[in-house]
Amino acid sequence: MKRKNQIRKRIIELIEQANITAREGNIEIAREYIKLAVMYSRKGRVKIPLKYKRMFCRRCFTPLIPGLTERIRIRSKILIRTCLICNWQRRYVVTRNKGINKKSHS
Ligand SMILES: [Zn+2]
């Protein structure tokens, strides 16, 4: 178990480093960091925490940074994230505790 925690820590570090690198404009290098993180995850059988999993494109491994490598659109409670590198799209249902159960007046 201890080993897995170490791998997870390494994965998180790599993803964070990838984000910084991508922001600096080195997208190619950033992708290598992500690829490495994914490889650690597979080899070590360690799951990437969801928060970090959502930080990169699962098709081309580019860190997703809004306005740089990612476009975010919200359309009637659906969040659409598009990778600007490979056009990969992912949809999320936006759930909020407030205002979700609004009664319709008709
Ligand atoms: Zn992509």
From TrEMBL:
EC number: 3.1.26.5
Biological process terms in GO annotation: tRNA 5'-leader removal
Location in the cell: Cytoplasm
InterPro entries documented for this protein: RNP4, Rpr2/Snm1/Rpp21
MF terms (GO), sorted A to Z: ribonuclease P activity; zinc ion binding
Residues that hold Zn(2+) according to the record: 57, 60, 83, 86
Key words of the record: Cytoplasm, Endonuclease, Hydrolase, Metal-binding, Nuclease, tRNA processing, Zinc
Cofactor details (free text): Binds 1 zinc ion per subunit.
Catalytic function, reaction form: Endonucleolytic cleavage of RNA, removing 5'-extranucleotides from tRNA precursor
The keyword tRNA processing appears for this protein: yes
Record's GO cellular component terms: cytoplasm; ribonuclease P complex
Primary enzyme class: hydrolase
Principal subcellular localization: cytoplasm
The protein's role, per its UniProt record: Part of ribonuclease P, a protein complex that generates mature tRNA molecules by cleaving their 5'-ends.
PANTHER family for the chain: RIBONUCLEASE P PROTEIN SUBUNIT P21, RIBONUCLEASE P SUBUNIT P21
Subunit structure: Consists of a catalytic RNA component and at least 4-5 protein subunits.
Identification of the protein by name: Ribonuclease P protein component 4
